[in-house]
Amino acid sequence: TYSTSNFYYAFLVAELCNLLKTPYITILHGGNLPQRLDNSPWKSKRLFKHSKLNIAPSKYILQEFKKRAYTNIKFIPNAINIEKYKATERGYERLNLLWVRSLTPIYNPNMALEVVRLLQEEGLDVRLTMVGPDPNNKFEELKETIKNQKLRIEYKGKLKQEEWHKLSAGHNIFINTSNFDNMPITLIEAMALGLPLVSTNVGGIPYLIEDGKEGLLCNKDDALTMVNCIKKIHKNPDLRQSLIVNARSKAESFSWQNVKALWISALA
Fold first, then answer.
1. Could you state, in chain order, the average pLDDT of each consecutive group of 10 residues for the chain (268 residues)?
2. What's the pTM value of the predicted model, to 2 decimals?
3. Contact residues for 96 (Cβ-Cβ < 8 A; gap 6+)
4. pLDDT at residue number 268
5. Which of 22, 33, 81, 163 could form a disulfide bond with 17, CB atoms 3.0-4.6 angstroms apart?
6. Structural domains of the chain ordered from first start
7. With contact defined as beta carbons under 8 Å apart, do 62 and 76 qualify?
């Protein structure tokens, strides 16, 4: 992820490759990578302009690099093995929300808690399950809020892919609260699993999810609008089914069979 400290590791590896005259290819992960280009222009140019090719997994990153006059860039989306993902029939008697990201500020887990608080305040029967690594012990802080506000939230920690896929069968709406994002594979997986999505509209997400077609979008840190989106999905079965079908169709476009030819061309 080039938007975090791994950028410096990648920079040093690229310098070594240049010294040894060894070609290299970068894959551009990190929702706030455009800020990295602006904040570290010299290192960014050394890293990305000298690469044989830069692979952008989202059209958002592709456009941001092109705005800054990078030409050695190609769009290849993240791929999934679509055959592994079975859309599950779900009940909607109560709200069973699922959140799958790292418990770090960039993914704004506090907003997920606020969403649950607002839904409970309206008297709705809601549960939230949070899944993901916690590198800085963020959940210890969140636990106090959960306890004080009597929020119905369970944290499962970091799970293997197949584990959270199995867990998802007991949930009926997937929420994403990121402050920055590129084209998160977890959202594509949720789409493939038949979970209707509500997400913030940051970074590359509007390139992945068209608001009202494959999911519902809100501004970052706007818990109230996210709550309203969740209630729309909960109360409107026709909208819900339309979102599920369209999202599954979009996810199928990211199957390895579709993406493989792009990689063969890039590596030729």
1. 78 95 92 88 95 93 94 93 90 96 96 98 97 95 96 97 96 96 92 97 94 98 98 97 97 92 89
2. 0.89
3. 126, 127, 129, 170, 171, 172, 173
4. 83
5. 22
6. 6-75 (no CATH), 82-252 (3.40.50.2000)
7. no
Residue with tokens 């970052």: 220
